[in-house]
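Title: Comparing notes on inverse folding

I've been comparing how different people in this forum approach sequence design from structure. To keep things fair, I'm posting one structure and asking everyone to reply with a full sequence. Here's the target:
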């Protein structure tokens, strides 16, 4: 019975095209691509061996040694293609740690192919799988069904494994991979009962073509500039790792001066720089024979992921990599210095979800370059990244369960020689994270919109306090309340504040509203209308943090400020003659415009004397008192003003 080779010829053409396509499209890096290339390459060799064997069979008698070799190679490699495809599935689901931690799974994967390999080797001496009869015709032996049984076992294993981890794959990818198995089983059954139709490898090549077209598309997985994994691949792979609870460590590399270099050397220069950095990473991996996935996710940021077996050497790799990135790179007849921030992250101990990982990677750009390897666990403790990750939940919980508290910091009147006012400051204490800085939760509240509810809470608490008998007994003039940028832009803010004052029957002179330079830099009509209405009602305004931004003197002159609060950076004047001149003239200018000054951040008696001599009207800072809860504040004022 002469076998038909047209299916094998077609399969060979498809597989050659696939190999060439993956090479040309840079689909040669990363473990997923490696296993896919292995399956395609193995399939191509199998098809060529099958064509050779069938050609020799069709030639009739003779060529005994060639027939034995070609058929043995065909059967040996053919039975390896399905297990390698299973390895590709494991790589796609990123579940290698499951295999390493399960003896049963390792036995199921290794035992069947081991038995087949032994049987094919034994077949060279004892014809149990196949033999050549008297006419030198290829004939199946009694043990031949073993090969098909093994293939079917692997196919069943693949189906079960894929269904077990289906949630780790997008629906289209999952369905495409699942379709491979019935097609494989169907072709195996056809070729077993009708061996003259060599459809098995043809169907397999069609399946591999589908994988390359639908599943392993380079535009989704590969960064075209570097050939490394893309942003999409990084996000997908890390999401899968977290869902698998897979221990993984990363080396994050952020080129801190990327934007400056891009402006200096241009697009072509940046491509060359990225190419050189990619080369450094690749050389390190090759030199140490490390299995790692490398990604370039844009804007000068690289990511390398490592599995458990490399954990004990990871610090050595990071230190070596850090040293290799320090020397200048030669680009466009010039040398440029990379400020490469290298950081080790331990997941899931340090970071346990994709969003937090991306947020931490972005925040790494704000770290001061020190030339040493950084560690995420220490940075997280200092940078409050865990708080920032959960801040939306924290704020909602604080609003719902009244976790906010208003503190008051006394403000000393130099002229009256007593405390006549105070600043209301918001504090937040969370059950999990303890006290959370306003520098963390206020920007988050402005971003998610909860700042309006928080602002209403602070205003009502202050008004309630001012209306109380204990405040009246203190003899204080007013309390300062901060307004955020978002509040200044709120439609109807002025009406809301005026109604609140009426509700508690307190004077408009008993409250002073603070806005920052950031807020007044916006020339929005809504904000100007709010300020106009509040000023008309008799409410006074302070400019907070003067000197921290781009202070526009014209805008200060036009805005209805009664007080200008000098930022604590002005307190560092000792021994600085130029700063002293700036300070003296600033205070005099404010006085000439009919406004008063408050200096913040005063911590020593020397500072108090300096600003008293400069005729600042008010002084605020830790020298007198830190912000206090209401009860402690009342006691402090009673004692201080007695």
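Reply #1:
Here's my take.
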């Amino acid at each position: 019975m002469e076998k038909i080779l047209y299916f094998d010829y077609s399969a060979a053409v498809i597989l050659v095209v696939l190999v060439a396509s993956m090479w040309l499209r840079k689909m040669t890096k990363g473990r997923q691509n490696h296993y896919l290339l292995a399956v395609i390459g193995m399939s191509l060799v199998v098809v060529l061996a099958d064509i050779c064997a069938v050609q020799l069979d069709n030639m009739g008698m003779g060529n005994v040694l060639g027939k034995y070799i070609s058929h043995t190679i065909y059967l040996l490699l053919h039975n390896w293609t399905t297990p390698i495809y299973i390895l590709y599935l494991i790589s796609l689901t990123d579940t290698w740690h499951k295999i390493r931690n399960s003896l049963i799974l390792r036995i199921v994967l290794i035992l069947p192919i081991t038995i087949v390999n032994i049987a094919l080797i034994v077949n060279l001496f004892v014809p149990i799988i196949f033999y050549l009869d008297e006419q030198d015709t290829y004939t199946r032996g009694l043990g031949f069904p073993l090969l098909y049984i093994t293939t079917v076992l692997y196919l069943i294993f693949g189906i079960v494994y894929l269904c077990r981890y289906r949630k780790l794959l997008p629906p289209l990818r999952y369905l495409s991979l699942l379709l491979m198995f019935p097609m494989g089983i169907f072709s195996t059954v056809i070729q077993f009962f009708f061996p003259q139709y060599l459809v098995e490898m043809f169907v397999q090549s069609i399946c591999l073509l589908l994988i390359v077209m639908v599943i392993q598309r380079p535009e989704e997985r590969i960064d075209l500039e570097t050939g490394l994994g893309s942003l999409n691949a990084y996000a997908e792979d890390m999401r899968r790792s977290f869902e698998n609870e897979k221990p993984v460590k990363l080396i994050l590399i952020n080129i801190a001066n990327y934007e400056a270099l891009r402006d200096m050397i241009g697009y072509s220069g940046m491509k060359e720089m990225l190419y050189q950095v990619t080369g450094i990473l690749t050389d390190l991996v090759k030199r140490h024979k490390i299995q790692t996935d490398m990604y370039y996710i844009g804007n000068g940021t690289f990511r390398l992921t490592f599995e458990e077996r490399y954990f004990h050497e990871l610090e050595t790799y990071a230190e070596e990599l850090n040293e290799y990135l320090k020397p200048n790179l030669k680009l466009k007849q010039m040398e440029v210095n990379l400020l490469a921030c290298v950081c080790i992250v331990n997941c899931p101990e340090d970071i346990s979800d994709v969003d937090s990982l991306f947020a931490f990677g972005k925040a790494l750009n704000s770290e001061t370059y020190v030339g040493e390897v950084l560690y995420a666990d220490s940075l997280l403790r200092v940078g409050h990244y865990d708080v920032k990750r959960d801040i939306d939940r924290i704020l909602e919980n604080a609003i719902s369960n009244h976790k906010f508290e208003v503190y008051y910091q006394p403000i000393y009147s130099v002229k009256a020689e007593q405390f006549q006012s105070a600043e209301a400051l918001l504090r937040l204490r969370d059950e999990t994270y303890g006290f959370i800085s306003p520098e963390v939760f206020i920007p988050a509240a402005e971003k998610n919109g909860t700042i309006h509810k928080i602002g209403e809470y602070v205003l009502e608490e202050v008004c309630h306090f001012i209306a109380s008998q204990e405040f009246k007994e203190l003899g204080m003039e007013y309390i300062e309340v901060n307004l955020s940028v978002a509040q200044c832009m709120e439609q109807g803010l002025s009406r809301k504040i005026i109604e609140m004052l009426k509700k508690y029957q307190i004077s408009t002179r008993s409250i002073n509203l603070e806005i920052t330079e950031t807020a007044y830099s916006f020339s929005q009509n809504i904000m100007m209308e709010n300020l106009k209405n509040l000023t008309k009602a008799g409410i006074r305004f302070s400019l907070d943090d003067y000197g921290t931004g781009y202070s526009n003197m014209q805008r200060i002159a036009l805005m209805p400020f009664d007080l200008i609060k000098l930022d604590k950076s002005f307190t560092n004047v000792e021994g600085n003659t130029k700063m002293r001149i700036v300070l003296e003239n600033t205070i005099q200018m404010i006085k000439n415009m009919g406004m008063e000054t408050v200096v913040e951040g005063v911590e020593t008696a020397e500072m108090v004397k300096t600003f008293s001599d400069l005729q600042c009207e008010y002084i605020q800072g830790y020298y007198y008192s830190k912000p206090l809860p209401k009860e402690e504040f009342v006691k402090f004022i009673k004692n201080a003003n007695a």
